[in-house]
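TASK: fixed-backbone design
INPUT:
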């Protein structure tokens, strides 16, 4: 290995280690924006709320991200680790919808969460994009 290759290899290893040690999502007051529409298309529905997100876990990342994803589908297939959100929701049949899978992908940090969920809908895809940012502590203790 050349003299240049060693520092580059060490830098790549260090950056990988930093990514794996992503900061846990911090409980507190969060501003959450939901937008829905076709992928790469115009958003047809948008909403924003402010909520207090709490957790009793040592690393609250999984609990808080799954709360934002919602519980209408089985969440076991969603991986939340190292600053990344990936996997798929497994959704049972309901109303006019057959059982299906909804891919989930995104990123998180201590004070920001950003992910998408793609829902198959009558031969199309409805993409829900959720962006959240921590804006402070909750107003009242639980």
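OUTPUT:
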């Amino acid at each position: 290995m050349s003299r240049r290759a060693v520092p580059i290899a060490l830098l790549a290893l260090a950056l990988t280690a930093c990514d794996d040690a992503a900061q846990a999502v911090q409980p507190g007051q969060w501003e959450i924006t939901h937008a829905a529409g076709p992928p790469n298309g115009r958003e047809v529905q948008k909403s924003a709320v402010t909520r207090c997100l709490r957790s009793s876990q040592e690393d609250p990342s999984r609990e808080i991200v799954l709360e934002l994803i919602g519980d209408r589908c089985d969440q076991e297939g969603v991986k939340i680790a190292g600053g990344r959100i990936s996997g798929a929701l497994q959704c049972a049949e309901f109303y006019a919808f057959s059982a299906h899978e909804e891919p989930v992908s995104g990123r998180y940090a201590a004070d920001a969460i950003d992910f998408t969920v793609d829902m198959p809908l009558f031969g199309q895809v409805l993409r829900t994009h959720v962006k959240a940012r921590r804006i402070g502590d909750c107003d009242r203790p639980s």
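COMMENT: Residues 9-20 have pLDDT under 50 and may be disordered.
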